[in-house]
Design a protein that fits this description.
By secondary structure, this protein is mostly helical. The chain has twelve helices and five strands. The strands form two sheets. A three-stranded mixed β-sheet has the order 4-3-5. The chain has a two-stranded antiparallel ribbon with strand order 1-2. The model is unreliable at about 1-10 (pLDDT under 50).
Length: about 325
């Protein structure tokens, strides 16, 4: 796990992702559990993406962003779960320093991109409910495409500088990461370099690339809820809320777990709790997104039933 020595320090070339290593008797069960989660996540998001692309009724801004979100969730879960499944199956929990940085970069890019996509979806719902007369002209095909491309590009840029600075750190002595993937804080803790510049850069990056989309999402839903409460009829309120309830559920799960993981103090007592909640936004959110949108969205349910009804005669032949 080391290849050079400088004085009394040994340069680390591999990390050990401890993850769930303190539960050796549950490795097989955890492998089967996460394998099922991975398969359901991939199949569910591919199904949503296929419906959005193939069903004409779903060719609207709301479902265009949903298709982008499903594509992102496929990538998101594929960055983390295959490596975790491999460690359960082989017992090999090591990961090279370079591979760890690569995993962190793609995880960070996708996490930032999801923040931007969720804010774009919330803005879409804001216009649909609060400014319906401007919705068609404002949320045109070109503007939606610009929002989607901007989300992906911004997410890629958000983590680039941070990853470059992270790769300049020196790691020595301990190489055990008490996490199931390569996240920022667990990696920085292992460094024996000065991390002040890195931590300042991380704060600035999160302030620029994470806080604005979160505030936009929050402001959109404050206006949406206020507009819904002003609707006089109960049926009207229910109909308006049903158009954004799925997205609001996803936003609550995603940002709720992010806030718990990154805002709570890092203590031994809370470390295990943070590991659990980090699984919420890295594993649970990609899993439940297609379920939430298919079970709570009438248009998606209708498209799904139509697609299944077309397959039934084929399967009987």
């Amino acid at each position: 796990m080391a290849d050079t020595e400088e004085g009394n320090q040994t340069s680390i070339t591999e990390f050990i992702l401890l993850g769930f290593g303190n539960l050796p008797e549950l490795q097989t069960l955890l492998f089967l559990l996460f394998l099922v989660i991975y398969i359901v996540t991939i199949v569910g998001n591919i199904l949503i993406l296929a419906l959005v692309v193939s069903v004409q009724n779903l060719h609207t801004p709301m479902y265009f962003f949903l298709g982008n979100l499903s594509c992102l969730e496929i990538c998101y879960t594929s960055v983390i779960l295959p490596r975790l499944l491999s460690s359960f199956l082989t017992g090999n929990k090591t990961i090279s320093v370079t591979a760890c940085f690569v995993q962190f970069y793609f995880f960070g890019c996708l996490a930032a991109t999801e923040c931007f996509l969720l804010s774009a979806m919330s803005y879409d719902r804001y216009l649909a409910i609060c400014k319906p007369l401007y919705y068609t002209t404002r949320m045109n095909e070109r503007f939606c495409l610009q929002l989607a491309i901007g989300s992906w590009v911004s997410g890629s840029l958000a983590i680039a500088t941070l990853t470059v600075l992270l790769s300049q750190l020196t790691f020595c002595d301990s190489n055990g990461i008490d996490y199931f993937f390569c996240d920022f804080a667990p990696i920085v803790k292992l460094s024996c370099s000065d991390t002040h510049l890195l931590e300042v850069t991380a704060f600035i990056s999160s302030s620029i690339f994470t806080l604005p989309p979160f505030l936009l999402t929050l402001a959109s839903y404050i206006h949406i809820i206020a507009a819904i409460l002003r609707i006089p009829s109960t049926t009207g309120r229910q109909k308006a809320f049903s158009t954004c309830s799925s997205h609001l559920s996803v936003v609550t799960i995603y940002y709720g777990s992010l806030i718990i993981v990154y805002m709570l103090p890092d203590t031994n007592r809370l470390r295990s709790l943070n590991k659990v909640f980090s699984g919420f936004y890295t594993i649970l959110t990609p899993l439940v997104n297609p379920l939430i949108y298919s079970l709570r969205n009438n248009a998606v349910k209708e498209a799904l039933w139509k697609a299944l009804s077309k397959l039934v005669p084929v399967t009987r032949i």
